[in-house]
Amino acid sequence: MLHLKSQNTMFQLFLLLKFTTILFSKVNSSPPEDPIICSSINRNCTITNSYGSFPDRSVCRAADVAYPTTEEELISVVATATEAKRKMKVATRFSHSIPKLVCLDGDKGLLISTKFLNRKLEIDRMRMTISVESGVTLRQLINEATKVGLALPYVPYWWGFTNQPYVPYWWGLTVGGMLGTSAHGSTLLGDGSSVQDYVIQIQIVTPAGPEEGYGKVRTIVSGDPDLKAARVSLGVLGVISQVSFDGLILEENQEMREDADGKCTDGKLITSALIVSAYGLANDGIVFTGYPVVGYHNRLQASGTCLDSLNDELIEVCSWDPRVKGLFFHQTAVSISMSKVKSFIQDVQKLVELVPKALCGVDLYNDILMRYVKASTAYLGKQEDAVDFDITYYRSKDPMSPRLYEDILEEVEQIGVFKYGGLPHWGKNRNVAFEGVINKYGNAEEFLKVKQDYDPLGLFSSGWTDQVLGLRDRVTIVREGCALEGLCVCSQDIHCAPSKGYFCRPGKVYEKARVCAR
């Protein structure tokens, strides 16, 4: 018993160290590696996401990469590639999306990075508008607004089952990236929490015919139906160069907290420590003394400081940095319509009652996060008012190794996506969540018409985007062990890990689900 107790103590110490790494990596750590790596100057390149791995673990390649610094340079890059009929994909500074939205087909295409399209263009305090280039990060956007006493009503927020305060999310997202994936916060008030629904103008560089020099800038303003396509574009319409936002409001921030209860011991250790530390909030800029915490919008605690800190030889890094074999995880993020949310939660509760320990691991990744999302006018935005459920959980470095309670989270995923018709977050999720997704959007055909008009040769499209848009074969990948990685829903035992005792079985609550269970 003493030996077991010692082991448990050591494991709890490990968790505390893990928590410390997560918390303090937000304060002082090495910045992430550039997601684009080339064997020679801007040529023969690979690109990954900030986690170092796509859902299917493939390596995405490009012949070269361009780094335009002005809209004029961007037009030239797009025109040259269009004339040569080369495939193109847009890359952001930190490449934070999980799906393969940035991947080209083959290795002959061109990556266009918005890393240096990162300038503030104009702020009009009287009209409450701000115009920026598409490579501007969320942090920059918030800071620029704060300089004139304004704040953003739509910045992405976390809201979970824990005592986590209502705070800004990852500030390394770029403006173009947020529009490409329909990034959102949490509210049903006003125009909602989706970033795209506060956009009043977009400038986008698209392919063109020889009579227009093979590339042109399209300016899309409020009232133009094309804005409904450009607001959530998946990067298939062209390269967004500039964006103008509306809806800036005077700052008025006050933090709130809720109590956590009923968590498993190890998960509670993490969440309790985060609660005690107030997630990094401080009343005077140094020490946290209690809620409410009131201050300027750009001083709210948020994930992201590890992006721009000094290099310290990787002593401290973002917790998921692949250079140090950091956290490696899946993310399932699905929006369930308000009319179905209660039933979805009840189904999840039934699963937890059947297997009480099944979701303990979720606590180690900040629990299940819930955010309100309002129906969007964007063709590929949310179709109705909904609650978004973000679930982050362990992913093995070995693609053939099942997770503990593999079947439960697979069933939660299928309940949300299939039983209740949930919409996957465009910038997160495993392949399974995108199966047949385009059929859930009432105006999908309108989006595809704009896509055909803007890029008739499909130069900004790829196999992945064609699959999720229903233009090519299915997005799922069927092979040995595919269900373990969310590349498929199992239909045969070989899709799981039969040699390790995991077989394809019906779900416990949702019997139509097919999960890898033992």
Automatic annotation (TrEMBL):
Keyword Transcription regulation: no
Gene3D superfamilies registered for this protein in UniProt: 3.30.465.10, 3.30.70.2520
Annotated keywords: Ascorbate biosynthesis, Oxidoreductase, Signal
InterPro entries from the UniProt entry: ALO_C, FAD-bd_PCMH, FAD-bd_PCMH-like_sf, FAD-bd_PCMH_sub2, FAD-linked_Oxidoreductases_BP, GULLO2-like_C, GULO_Plant, Oxid_FAD_bind_N
TM region(s), chain numbering: none
An example molecular function term from Gene Ontology annotations: FAD binding
Domain (FAD-binding PCMH-type) ranges: 58-250
EC number of this enzyme: 1.1.3.8
GO cellular component terms, semicolon-separated: membrane
Pathway(s) annotated for this protein in UniProt: Cofactor biosynthesis; L-ascorbate biosynthesis
Signal peptide coordinates: 1-29
Catalyzed reactions: L-gulono-1,4-lactone + O2 = L-ascorbate + H2O2 + H(+)
Gene Ontology BP terms: L-ascorbic acid biosynthetic process
Xref: Pfam families: ALO, FAD_binding_4, GULLO2-like_3rd
Family statement: Belongs to the oxygen-dependent FAD-linked oxidoreductase family.
Listed PANTHER family: GULONOLACTONE OXIDASE, L-GULONOLACTONE OXIDASE 5
Name of this chain's protein: L-gulonolactone oxidase
Source organism of this protein record: Rhododendron griersonianum
